[in-house]
């Protein structure tokens, strides 16, 4: 069975964005890009909420074609263009979207069906609202968190409206020279 892994940058106090969605506090550099690039290159499906997907769609399809494109821009653009994208949205239509599936209803049923299909892990990128929806239905199988060395004090929290405890098992940790620490957890369903 395929697993859904939530990939998030998070502040030390548990926020994934500032009060107005700000993400300018997130630390990224070549070391983190290279590390993340290795893992996501093995994936074949990216899961997004509508807002994150629109942000990605506005940048990544052509980012690698720009004359001043970085190594990361080129590699991630190639990956983005080939990976199957799934978008959770009640308002989007998929008329012009290549290699994209929109899920607008029957979330639990559709996600569980997708998890049964052949393929590799499904990476859920950013998308706090989508993550909250999947979390509430116990559909996330792991958390791949990049803890940034900052306390925001307020913002959009990663964990909200959790009804039951979610036990996690730590798989790996990795500190980066920027001060960011990767925490890779699987959900312990026993």
TrEMBL record:
Annotated GO biological process: riboflavin biosynthetic process
SUPFAM superfamilies to which the protein is assigned, alphabetical: Dihydrofolate reductase-like
Alphabetized Gene3D superfamilies for the sequence: Dihydrofolate Reductase, subunit A (3.40.430.10)
InterPro entries in UniProt: DHFR-like_dom_sf, RibDG_C, Riboflavin_Biosynth_HTPR
GO MF annotation terms: 5-amino-6-(5-phosphoribosylamino)uracil reductase activity
Sections of the chain in a coiled coil: none
Residue intervals of the Bacterial bifunctional deaminase-reductase C-terminal domain: 2-180
PANTHER family: 2,5-DIAMINO-6-RIBOSYLAMINO-4(3H)-PYRIMIDINONE 5'-PHOSPHATE REDUCTASE, DIHYDROFOLATE REDUCTASE FAMILY PROTEIN (AFU_ORTHOLOGUE AFUA_8G06820)
Protein name stated in the entry: Dihydrofolate reductase
Source organism: Adhaeribacter arboris
């Amino acid at each position: 069975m395929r697993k859904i892994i939530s990939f998030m940058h998070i502040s030390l106090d548990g926020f994934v964005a500032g009060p107005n969605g700000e993400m300018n506090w997130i630390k990224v550099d070549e070391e983190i890009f290279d590390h993340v690039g290795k893992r996501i290159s093995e994936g074949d499906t990216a899961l997004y909420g509508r807002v994150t997907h629109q942000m990605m769609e506005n940048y990544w399809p052509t980012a690698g074609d720009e004359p001043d494109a970085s190594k990361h821009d080129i590699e991630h653009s190639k990956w983005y263009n080939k990976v199957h994208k799934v978008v959770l949205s009640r308002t989007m239509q998929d008329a012009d979207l290549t290699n994209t599936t929109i899920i607008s209803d029957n979330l639990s049923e559709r996600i569980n069906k997708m998890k049964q299909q052949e393929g590799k892990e499904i990476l859920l990128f950013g998308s706090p609202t989508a993550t909250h929806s999947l979390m509430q239905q116990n559909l996330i199988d792991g958390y791949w968190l990049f803890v940034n060395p900052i306390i925001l004090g307020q913002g959009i929290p990663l964990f909200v409206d959790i009804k039951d405890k979610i036990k996690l098992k730590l798989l790996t940790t990795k500190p980066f020279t920027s001060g960011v620490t990767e925490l890779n957890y699987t959900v312990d369903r026993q």
